[in-house]
Amino acid sequence: MGERKKGRGHIWIDIVLVLVVLIVLFPLVWILLTSFKDRFLIAATPPKIFFRPVLDNYYTVFFRDAFYKFFKDSLIIAVCSTGIALFLGSMTAYSMTRYRVGGDFLPFWILSIRMFPPIAIILPIYIIMRKLHLLDTYYAVIIMHTLVNLPFVVWLMSGFFREVPNEIDEAAKIDGCSVFSAFLRVILPIVLPGLLATTIFCFITSWNEFLFALVLSGRRVTTLPVAAAFYVTDRDILWGPMAAVGVTASIPIIIFTILIQKHLVRGLTYGAVK
Amino acid sequence: MAIPTVLFLLAICIYPLLNSLYLTFNEWSLTSNKPPKWIWLGNFWELIRDDRFWSSLKTTAVFTAGVVSIEMCIGMLLALSASRNTKFRQVCRSIILIPMMITPVVLGLIWKYMFNPENGIINYLLGLIGINGPIWLGEPAPALPAVMIVDIWQWTPFVFLLLLSGIASLPPEVFEAARVDGASPRQMFRYITLPLLMPFMLVALLIRFIDSFKIFDTIFVMTRGGPANATESLSIYTYKVGLNFFRMGYAATLSYVILIIITFASQQFLKLEKR
Questions:
Q1: Do B263 and A116 touch (CB under 8 A)?
Q2: Buried-most residue among B2, B49, B68, B199 (CB within 10 A)?
């Protein structure tokens, strides 16, 4: 009797979960369907679920509106800012966890950067970048995305480094490694899975970031979210091409998310929860 | 090896913050060629009398309180009920992860499309069950709930997953012992699960509070703060004052208000966590 009751509860929970999954997936599937519809199908009521898919929207987005340019900009900025943040951040994390550089203050300070709103520094940054003639260049956006990613790298990598026993460093040093080469040749390979997850996280963060990219970019350099945000104006609503932009921008993210799902909670909470 | 990072942070984060602090005491329009003019506490005085500031503060507070409490409740319920692991549930979990990683701007656009009054799917579905859907993003009353729905849809999975990993970390021996001692399920929840989950709930609460309080992306894309400023969050208002009206001093003051509120509130959270 008790067993049967348990089994039934089980099924109800699964039904609720399926409902949740449907609610989560619905907007994504809907936009995917829309991206393959032509103008008339999009305007049709009731909305059609089965139809002959066309690639018009993708053609419009990539060939008429040259969206590959925004993809390229986003990619360059994401790769560069991720690289710099990883380089600076993992060195800092290593020295913080192994040699207690900065004591308690440095980790706390770096964490508090995660908390503060980007809007608080966006104005002075805008003014400074204008003075330096860096507005509308890759450099400006890369620097700011590095700032966003840096605390993240430091905290996540600190967690991964702490999991590596100190004896390994000692052994490397006895074998004649300097601090730097012990870090590079011995420790980094051990934390490689963590490093890869961190890399993907940073990449996604930069790919998604909107406010800095919006303020610092312009006609020459435009990241994908900024281009997408201004693609839909109230006068001229192009739902089809917008759907195509949304789908293509999301595909790399979805693949990456599935790759790092094991580390996702840890990443999103800055290592506070494993 | 930490020196480059410290220098970078000093230059890109601390210097701008101090610069911004200096600006809060000045009146300075970027469109004119005049240099900043020191006006003491003039900007704060204006802030107190600025109705639009108070209304955006209220909007942000309603938004934050609403989405955070709903996300915490649904996330908690889901995590408690789905804590036992099966293959099927693992697949469900992987799917649920997706929304929180997708570009907020893109999500905003997707929902704007679904909310649109002409051929939006949401009003169509509501019509099927006999409800005449409002012009979601075109009228002041339903606009704020609409942007809140998007946030809840996107971030409830985060709370769910975080609490799930919290539940997974609970020691089974404690529950075993409680059962032997004859504790009822309700007592076990009240006196074991809840206190042990508290740190995880606080982390979820803190992160969701901070992120929803500075909400910008989805609102910017969906409504630009409209209609009739009904969805104008503090971040959106600050952005407009600074980069549409170019009133740098006043915008800096507004941004400091956001900074102070977030810092103060997260300190309170951290104090709670220490207890």
A1: yes
A2: B68
Q: Hey, is the C-beta of A181 within 8 angstroms of any chain B C-beta?
A: no
Closest CB to A273 among B6, B112, B162: B162
Say if the ipTM goes beyond 0.85.
yes
Domain that includes residue B227, residue range: 53-274
A197: contact with B, CB 8 A cutoff: no
Residues pairing with B27 in the sheet: B37
The one-letter code for the residue type at A14 is: D
Q: Which amino acid is at A221?
A: V
Query: What tens-digit pLDDT sequence spans chain B (275 residues)?
Result: 788 889 999 999 899 999 999 999 999 888 887 888 899 898 999 999 999 999 999 999 999 999 999 999 999 988 888 777 778 888 888 888 888 889 999 999 999 989 988 778 898 889 889 888 888 988 899 999 999 999 999 999 899 988 988 888 888 888 888 888 888 888 888 888 888 899 889 989 998 999 999 999 999 999 998 899 999 999 999 999 999 999 999 999 999 999 999 989 888 888 887 77
A49 and A154: one domain?
no
Does residue A230 belong to any structural domain of this protein? yes
| CA-wise closest residue to B121 among B129, B113, B132 | B113
Is B78's CB within 8 Å of A16's CB?
A: yes
What CATH number should be reported for the domain holding residue A168? 1.10.3720.10
Burial letters for B51-76: b for 16+ Cβ neighbours within 10 Å, e otherwise? eebeebbebbeebbebbbebbbebbb
Answer whether A237 touches B (CB < 8 Å): yes
Residues of B in contact with A150 (CB under 8 A): 5, 8-9
Q: Which residue among B1, B166, B214 places its CB closest to the CB of A119?
A: B214
pTM of the full structure: 0.91
Does residue A80 share a domain with residue A69? yes
Residues A12 and A87 grouped into a single domain: no
Instruction: Identify the domain boundary among A28, A57, A86.
Output: A57
CATH number (domain holding residue B160):
1.10.3720.10
Number of domains in chain B: 1
d(CA B56, CA A84) in angstroms, rounded, equals 37
CB A269 to CB B207 under 8 A?
yes
Give the residue from A153, A133, A27, A150 showing the smallest Cα distance to B114: A27
SS3 category, B38: strand
- In the numeric block, the tokens 């300075």 are attached to B28
Cβ distance of B1 and A254 shorter than 8 Å: no
User: If you measure CA to CA, which chain B residue comes closest to A125?
Assistant: B16
What is chain A's Cα-based Rg? 23
Domain with A252 in it: 60-268
